[in-house]
Amino acid sequence: MVKRVSLWDAGCPVARALDVIGDWWSLLIIRDAFDGVRRFSEFQTGLGIAKGMLATRLRDLTERGILESAPASDGTAYREYVLTAKGRGLFLVMVALRQWGEDHLYRPDEPKSSLVDTETGIPVARLEMRTEDGRPMDWNNTRVKKIEDR
């Protein structure tokens, strides 16, 4: 088995982010946390993930500041996993993945879940990137200014 290489010290923010959340189990745990899942047993049942694998992912996400362990909200002796501010900062990443999946991984007539405004029930608008002055941007009119470009 190949040992996983850490990207924590990489000069690229994408590489560093993938070091923290770059496997599907971590992203699915984060997705479920946004959907209100909090307890180990709920994550395990909903995802069908092995207990050892889940324990490892939850520990890693907690150590990296994405989740925190807190006393159960119902006063029982259980612990719950809740998103930290750093974890909640991943919301736009999750929405971007969702919208990409909707655009490219479903047939036009295939049913799928949708992200809606809790107040109105209306679907959330598409994400789009803009300049600071409001102009729309895309991949072909941006570039990464690398550290050596300074």
Automatic annotation (TrEMBL):
- UniProt entry tagged with the keyword Lyase: no
* Gene3D superfamilies cross-referenced by the UniProt entry: Winged helix-like DNA-binding domain superfamily/Winged helix DNA-binding domain
Picking any one GO molecular function of the record gives: DNA binding
- Domain (HTH hxlR-type): residue spans on this chain: 12-109
Q: What span is annotated as the signal peptide, if there is one? A: none
Q: Which keywords does the record carry?
A: DNA-binding, Transcription, Transcription regulation
A UniProt-annotated Pfam family: HxlR
Q: Which domain of life is it from?
A: Bacteria
Which named protein is this? Transcriptional regulator
The scientific name of the source species is Hansschlegelia plantiphila
